[in-house]
Specification:
Blueprint lengths: L4 H24 L10 H20 L11 H23 L1 H4 L11 H29 L9 H28 L3 H14 L12 H7 L5 H12 L5 H32 L1
Helix pairs in contact: 1-5, 2-3, 3-5, 3-6, 3-7, 3-9, 5-6, 6-9, 6-10
């Protein structure tokens, strides 16, 4: 008969393995590089600088945010998108990359993906904090009372990222082309999300159509809440509800597929 302490010990071992996976993901991503984890901050900054140059000077763009510089408008949309995209990209290969470990360690397969997603998200969230500090330092007033709502919108983005990563990771086990497809879909999704542009400036049919993108409300809410603009509360609530459903669907898909995963790895 198992002792009462056995379930607690098993839970502690799983917790320890999960933390070890997370530490490994954070340390190995840039092992041997000069800047290390700094690349997680430098790469988005360089992308922001290039896009700001192109759309501010070469192809002038403007936002419907009054005197807010376009670079600040862009940054507040680009970082949430990067959080989602990096979580999905990193999570897609979480199971296939850990094929040698799966089956030897009694750890739910979902946690392999979760460790990858967290390993991507934590540096990205640090990058978002630096962006907010930089925006304030350049004289763009941030609406501090909007921080709780912005944090809620970030959580919605994270929920979509985790749900998409769970689904993609399972599909990647059975069809290795999924990783390539994810990259192409993310490129399309970037332009269908209100990162580079303000939807209110688009013709009504296009603006309404792009509003069905579930990432549009949280990205717009982050931007609006931090700039003191009206937040699309109804759309944000609908997106939050859809994010919960996406997580439930992804967990159910994972549970259905888990008995067959080791046979295909």
């Amino acid at each position: 008969m198992n002792s009462p302490a056995a379930p607690a010990a098993g839970h502690a071992r799983r917790h320890a393995v999960f933390l070890a996976l997370l530490r490994r993901d954070l340390s190995e991503r840039h092992q041997g590089s000069l800047l290390g984890i700094g690349w997680n901050l430098l790469q988005p900054l360089l992308q922001l600088a290039v896009l700001s140059l192109v759309f501010t000077h070469l192809l002038p763009a403007r936002s419907a945010t009054g005197d807010v510089p376009y670079a600040a408008f862009l940054a507040l949309g680009l970082w949430p998108w990067q959080v989602f995209a990096n979580a999905l990209t990193r999570g897609t290969t979480a199971l296939t990359d850990n094929a040698a470990l799966i089956g030897k360690v009694a750890l739910p397969h979902t946690l392999y993906v979760l460790a990858r997603v967290l390993g991507s998200v934590l540096p990205d969230l640090a990058g978002m904090v630096l962006v907010l500090i930089a925006i304030a330092a350049f004289g763009v007033p941030l609406h501090l009372p909007g921080l709780p709502l912005a944090a809620l919108a970030v959580l919605i983005v994270l929920a979509y990222g985790l749900a998409a990563a769970w689904v993609a990771a399972v599909l990647q086990v059975f069809l290795r082309d999924v990783g390539f497809a994810v990259g192409q879909l993310l490129t399309l999704g970037f332009f269908l999300s209100p990162v580079l542009y303000d939807r209110t400036q688009l013709p009504e049919p296009f603006a309404s159509m792009l509003g069905f993108n579930p990432l549009a409300p949280p990205i717009e809410a982050i931007r609006a809440s931090l700039l003191g603009l009206p937040v699309p509360a109804t759309a944000l609530g609908a997106s939050a509800a859809l994010a919960v459903l996406a997580l439930l669907f992804a967990r159910r898909l994972f549970a259905r597929a888990q008995p067959h995963v080791e046979d295909f790895l």
